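User: Please predict the structure of the protein below. I'd like the answer in structure-token form so I can feed it into my own downstream comparison script.

Assistant: Understood. Taking the following sequence of 188 residues as input:
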Amino acid sequence: MEEIVVMIDQLKQKLNNPDSIVSLFLGAAVVVVVGVMIFNYFRSKQAPAAATPEQQKAEQNATGSASVNTHTVVAGESLWSIAVSTIGSGYNWVDIQEANKITSPDKLEVGQKLTIPKVAKREPGQIASAQVETKRPADGKYTVQKGDSLWNISVAVYGTGFRWTEIARSNNLSNPDLIFTGNVLTLP
């Protein structure tokens, strides 16, 4: 018992030095960080690997289950890239967004399962719905307002944002992201 008391007294004397306390806490922090990294490494090794879009297509063709319209998100994918690989056109990303009730399209999670709707492949400039009323001004001109983008202008004028490229082309805009309040654009 006396040995334990002596060891405790020695430990107290060593810990009275401020450098020893800092070293103790830094050492403990390193141990915790390394432990978390090791835990995450082994946890990620146990998680099932998500199939790439090419693997999913090959599996569907092999099993004949192309009627199953789901897609598992892999790292680096966006709704646009998923629409390209599953439907054939990036412009169908909005269909995938609507089918899955995604409120923030830029926040997909790896492993997330998405329903891929059976829709026609959209082409650039294609109007989303045949019932959309075109509100093109009679003079074919549009004056840019504060906060406008070519997408917003295209939605306001044509009922779909997909025609922004036509507006950019008809106005010879080298940088479509650079429009200014008061600019007068010719509408195609």
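That's the full token string. Confidence is low (pLDDT under 50) at residues 61-67, 127-132.
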